[in-house]
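Researcher: Let's run the pair from yesterday's discussion. Sequence first, then tokens, for each.
Model: Starting with the first of the pair.
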Amino acid sequence: MKMMSNRGGIIKCKAAVAWGAGEAMRMEEVEVSPPEPSEIRIKVVSTSLCRSDLTAWLSQAQPQLFPRIFGHEASGIVESVGEEVTEFVEGDHVLTLFIGECMKCKQCVSAKKSNICQQLGLERKGVMHSDQKTRFFVKGKPVYHYCAVSSFSEYTVVHSGCAVKISKDAPLEKVCLLSCGTAAGLGAAWNVANVSKGSTVAIFGLGTVGLSVAQGAKIRGASRVIGVDTNPDKKEKAKAFGVTDFINPNEIEEPVQQVIRRMTDGGADYSFECIGDTEMVTTALQSCCDGWGVTVTLGVPKAKPDVTAHYGLLLTGRTLKGSLFGGWKPKSDLPSLIDMYLKEEIKIDGLITHNLAFRDINKAFDLMVAGKCLRCVIHMSNEL
């Protein structure tokens, strides 16, 4: 792949810039600054649209964070490195990370207790971790970042702790999904819930994350995986990822939690909320059994961020857990998932429903709004 390089200088390239909430992306020529100390500049090869990109794009909560370049689920090639960077060299293949890992803070050295790095956790201000400034400009005007990545640009700059080196044998147009959605679902099943063999599982929302939870539960040996979704087209796709029973709430006459409790003799061992609907968290809790039922919430809420539940649901022994990136320590753990994919131990390809050229990025947003895709992979070369 031909890669522009201007080591130490500004690169001009194309980026899909959002100028306002819900406004179509405009393809702009942007100036991408060189990497500062502890940063790397990446030639983005493939990036996929995640629902959290869509949620943030539609949100009116932070209108000041425009213009902005979205995208965080991506793969690419290191174009240049800043001072103090020793783990990357030009030409390395990488995945971007929306939460980083500094390897030094209390959270990072906490073994498996946490993956929320104190230095490189979720970045919500639209600027770089290191100096609170942007690396993108359009005609001299600064452009905000998204999730410390901004992969809807031919080149981007990230902190070196927000990227992980991967095998060059891994197809970049596939494994980009592991930088967020697929890894998040697998980790929720394995790391957060620790799904056990022979258990029953209920999953609310069968998008990329929900299907990855199902895949993880199946690999762990769950005896029954119940998928809940209002889109009937997902029924057949879900079977390929381990879903044994499909419930469409629009096609039943009683609350879905009652149906699940009857199917599982009092409630599922584990339930997963993968929609981004805080009201559904209560439904997921009610679908779990007394005593040991575990509910994991993964979705990013579009509205009403507060979770409410009757105390009795917890008093009777249920547990509610949150999950960010499936509990994975991204730099430490993602290479093992890459290896599993290369050994065909986990599935990614079936989650990719569309492959689009960069110039067609707005089509990806349209497809997701209409509920007609799982993952749209956007190929930055435009050669499709």
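Model: Moving on to the second of the pair.
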Amino acid sequence: MNVFIVYAHPSANSLNGALKDYAVQRLQAAGHSVQVSDLYAMEWKPALEAGEVAGHAVLAEQEKLLWADVVIFQFPLWWFSMPAIMKGWVERVFTHGFAYGIGEHSELRWGDRYGEGTLAGKRAMLMVTAGGWESHYGPRGINGAVADLLFPIHHGILYYPGMDVLPPFLLYRSDRMDDARFAAACAALGKRLDALATTVPIPFRRQNYGDYDIPAMTLKVDIAPGVVGFGAHLA
């Protein structure tokens, strides 16, 4: 497979840097082709300017996306989301006509999005480190359930242009890492990387396949009755 890693951490000597290097080695050893966009090393410009037209840098990233069978977004969880430089990568690379604004609207379908689109057929996975304990991100944890925190990325950034989104690889208490924990983390990550082609994606509902009223884009009354919030969009 072709695997594209979009990586955001300012320090090459960080835990994230070590995990990224391990992932590249593991994937290549298994025979996969790997490309990495190290956003800090590239000095990626995150700000989308008014009237910006996609230039060489943006087009090169879009080519990597089109080349990839699997896209891995690796980052530390900062202020409950991805680092600003990675969000800026999304804003500049996921351009109109490439990742959104595709397809005609009608009474039967509302463009090619949420399960359809330019990136349909590709797989995506987040590799996320967090400083807090796993319990802090549990269903009743003070930080909120991690599935809810990542929903805007999983559903709104990755699934929107058509990618199948795999469950994330999560590493908690990232500031408490010794050799034994790092070895265990690499072993767990290795298993996830080995199963990129076979892991069952998060079962998000597809937009144009009968679950939503068009053009209101709300779930039909007989679909998950009484269920609201992010969970209602899981089949």
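Researcher: Give me one sentence on the second I can quote.
Model: Strands lie at 2-7, 33-38, 70-76, 123-129, 164-165, 169-171, 212-213, 218-219.
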